């Protein structure tokens, strides 16, 4: 363990919240954070002693280079995940990004399988989630693993300047100015998919009117200035604290 312990703890916490919120099951899925001022990244590792996303500890976070390689050998046999290139390619393409999340949440994936868009069916119910439908996220149209630098770069091109993308038959990738906001975008995206799924099951959903979409879109999300890698501020930190408390109480 080195001096990035605090950031490792933040990445591990994000992983545990991903598991708790149903974004990642078993051992698949990972969060990462760029180490500010460097070209290094901390990411959830895979290996013989890993405990799964829901139970990630700081010891299971490894430091990697932007080539996707371990910065130094790990004495526990931990390795970077196969899909590490999702993270490295996004960090290379997006200097504003300091946190990346990749997960396989079922409801979001169902919409990619059925080639159905996530529709703006609600507003104030969850403005952050609604915004992901009002300005639809891009789609990476392949179900294969992003396990090469080239595939990672393709995903980063598909993502563009957005805060996330859907990956057909596979999952989602979200990003932000810190790992916490990338995680909360992933949670919001899965909530959006769940509401769309349930509404379609119940009847014939109706999009909210354009003027109401504009209203929701204009709500200030009170997020911090992008780029620093610092933990979230303003309303976002209250929201994140709630997820942290939920995770701590669930873990006893
Ligand atoms: Zn994946």
CATH architecture call: 3-Layer(aba) Sandwich
How many β strands by DSSP? 7
Taking pLDDT < 50 over at least 5 consecutive residues as the criterion, the unreliable ranges are none
Which range best describes the helical content: under 10%, 10-25%, 25-40%, 40-55%, 55-70% or over 70%? 40-55%
Strand order across the largest sheet: 3-2-1-4-7-6-5
What is the name of the CATH topology?
Answer: L-fuculose-1-phosphate Aldolase
Reading the helices and strands in chain order gives HEEEHEHHEHEEHHH
Name every ligand kind in the structure: zinc ion
CATH homologous superfamily designation: Class II aldolase/adducin N-terminal domain
Largest sheet: 7 strands, mixed
How many domains?
1
The termini sit apart by: 25 Å
What can you see in these coordinates?
The chain is of the alpha+beta class and 252 residues long. The protein has a single domain (5-246), classed as L-fuculose-1-phosphate Aldolase. It has 8 helices and 7 strands, in the order H-E-E-E-H-E-H-H-E-H-E-E-H-H-H. It has helices at 5-20, 84-93, 106-113, 127-134, 149-159, 179-202, 210-217, 235-251; strands at residues 30-34, 40-44, 61-65, 99-103, 139-140, 164-167, 171-176. The model has no long low-confidence stretch (mean pLDDT 93). Zinc ion (ZN) binds at residues 83, 102, 104, 170-171.
